[in-house]
Amino acid sequence: MTMRTPRSRSILRASTLAAALLLATTTLTACGSSGPGGSDDDSIDVWVYQDASTKVQRAVVERFNKTSKVKAKLTEVPGEGYSDKMRTSMGTPNAPDVFFNWGGGSISDFVKEDMLVDLGPSFKKDPELQKAFIPSILKAGAVNNTYYGIPMRGMQPVILFYNKKVFQDAGAQPPKSWDDLLGLINTFKKKGVTPFALAGTDPWTELMWVEYLVDRYGGAEVFKRIQSGDASGWDDPAVLKTAETIKELVDRGTFGKNYKSVNYTADGASTLFAKGKAAMHLMGSWEYANQKANQPDFAKSGLGWTTFPAIPDGNGDPKNVVGNPTNYWSVNAKTKGKKRDAAIEFVKFAAKQDYSKDLIANGDVPATSDATSLLGKHENPTYAQFQYDMVREAPSFTLSWDQALSAKNTPALHTNIQKLFNGQLSPTGFVTAMQKDIK
């Protein structure tokens, strides 16, 4: 199973200040050989983020090339250089015809410059294509309510994981309500167990708490306003209430005393959780793969999962989900003629069942609407079905804020959230800082 590295969210969106150096030191075979403006009309360049899941894209290129006169050439871009390479290549003759992205803020600048193909007409021409994907996933990849992406990898919702043995020893049950969660904090503290593992050195892990709480208090519309550029969204009562709740949770000892020095990237928080030092862990769905790789016995029999609970008097739908909906294929607007036709046909292959089967064989959960019958082939069918149902039933799937907002906002976003958790910003100070820094 492919672990979704936590930094497929921020490290990959590093500042473009390093782009020139990356371009000078990174050599990619086939890059730009037949991209927009190129003379080779018999092929399209397809760029993908290089990791263990890339084998799924290799297989679809082979299938596509058996049916198309215009051939697809796959370029696997090394992970940490991908975001910068993508940004600095778009608009040049070396740009890809089709490329992997995270939707939202990762392509918003391209949309502003009319660099991407609006896929809406393709959906109108082929209604079954739109129906092929879970609606909340498809919407999460849109920009200004316009579709520029086709889902092409597995779903990555944020899930509330729990340690079955720790719960059994305490005679406790997974939380079904916010009151249950608060009660469990007291239960586990009395047992000498940290209620929630938290990797405080990696602020994106703390962001997950903020995302869910804002959603549960105010609904998905609060962040949608912020994402659309309406800075008044930070004034929404849900944001202040979230900041106050974070402070209350920290003061209660929810995350223990040492969370500020715990990491995720070196498996710190996950190990504490697996070893029973912490009872619960709010984390992306890749936590299963992480545990399987590093604590396989725990992943097999000790790892439990449930949804984030509703908040009393909250306006958000308790079925809403936050996280990384999936990754997307987008098509370069400079790709014209039969190459554009071929590019659009290529991205449609992600809707086919053989593509979904390859994803499942790789340990992923597809974003297609007809995947239920295939999930029995997943290495952990119960976990796969839980994820799938969770997302399919979600009225809204909010993209991780550090992906949804422009990359320039990520450092301030992470800094302010970490300061809130560390007590360096009061709840009102947090709201003021977000109003000032995130625009």
Automatic annotation (TrEMBL):
<dbReference type="InterPro" id="IPR006059">
    <property type="entry name" value="SBP"/>
</dbReference>
<dbReference type="InterPro" id="IPR050490">
    <property type="entry name" value="Bact_solute-bd_prot1"/>
</dbReference>
<feature type="signal peptide">
    <location>
        <begin position="1"/>
        <end position="30"/>
    </location>
</feature>
<protein>
    <submittedName>
        <fullName>Putative extracellular solute-binding protein</fullName>
    </submittedName>
</protein>
<keyword id="KW-0732">Signal</keyword>
<dbReference type="Pfam" id="PF01547">
    <property type="entry name" value="SBP_bac_1"/>
</dbReference>
